[in-house]
Automatic annotation (TrEMBL):
GO terms for molecular function: dioxygenase activity. InterPro entries: Phytyl_CoA_dOase-like (IPR008775). Keywords: Dioxygenase, Oxidoreductase. This is Phytanoyl-CoA dioxygenase family protein. It comes from the Bacteria.
Length: 256
């Protein structure tokens, strides 16, 4: 799929709210295929070295298992992912949302294992990144499981894409997660069926509850931005942990 048609209603919804649900971006058969790949990453069969970390370090109770598993750049370790349906369709939807110059900046896996019960703190993705002159950026959050409030579906603050970036700080002493002041009262929960996804703007405030269920909550995330901005990031030495792995960093001085 090279092109994807979004209705004016969908485009307006994204513009006004900062997120959009796209149902069944991959089929049930494709979900099965992606789950098998995902589990090879989780089990360590596909070794990602320092690109794996605990995003929930110090936020959850466990000191021995990851509270939130984050794997940066799965496509670096399994390049065929780039040619598979998910990456291709996300690229097409992103172009429809933000223009033909959109390209993948990075991809990542974020899993909440059963019972880990660790929130992803409220944040805006822009606070994690360099301040770019062109602010267009979009993340696709694909759920391979049935994402519910109980296991950590995404919550968004509608319209926050059109506001400012709030002041962010580290959410804990050691971990890399950032947090800003926000609450569920401002937000809406967005449960998803397996194979469905949300697209959210880099400025949209979001968060997820912990996984208190007995099942995995596997999310496969792709972030895209204009080609020229990716070139600028790389020129400035910023690759979203592709080579340097995950490390604690507040990249955007502006939002401290
Ligand atoms: O999966 C999560 O809990 C958080 C994901 C997230 O923050 C993102 O995709 O930007």
């Amino acid at each position: 799929m090279n092109t994807y048609k979004l209705s004016q209603r969908q485009l307006d919804f994204f513009e006004d709210n900062g997120y959009l649900v796209v149902e069944h971006i991959i089929s049930p058969q494709e979900v099965t295929q992606y789950k098998a790949i995902y589990d090879d990453f989780l089990s360590g069969k596909i070794d990602v070295g320092g690109n794996r970390s605990d995003l929930g370090e110090d936020l959850g109770e466990s000191k021995t298992v990851e509270n939130i598993t984050q794997i940066m750049w799965p496509s670096k370790f399994l390049p065929e992912l780039l040619e598979m349906v998910y990456h291709q369709r996300v690229l097409a939807v992103s172009k429809a949302l933000m223009g033909d110059d959109m390209e993948m900046d990075f991809d990542m896996l974020i899993n909440k294992a059963p019972g880990t019960n660790t929130i992803t703190p409220w944040h805006q993705d822009e606070a994690y990144w360099m301040n770019m002159p062109d602010k267009r950026s979009v993340s696709c959050w694909l759920s391979l499981d049935h994402a519910t409030e109980e296991n950590g579906c995404m919550w968004f603050v509608p319209g926050s894409n059109n506001g400012k970036v709030r002041s962010h700080r580290f959410a804990s002493k050691e971990g890399g997660a950032l947090v800003c002041d926000a609450s569920e009262e401002e937000g809406v929960a967005v449960p998803l069926l397996p194979g469905s996804c949300t697209f959210h703007h880099g400025r949209t405030l979001h968060y997820s509850r912990g996984n208190s269920s007995s099942h995995q909550r596997r999310a496969f995330i792709i972030n895209l931005r204009p080609k020229a901005m990716i070139q600028l990031e790389r020129k400035l030495g910023y690759d979203h942990g592709k080579e340097s792995g995950s490390k604690r960093k507040l990249d955007n001085e502006e939002f401290k």
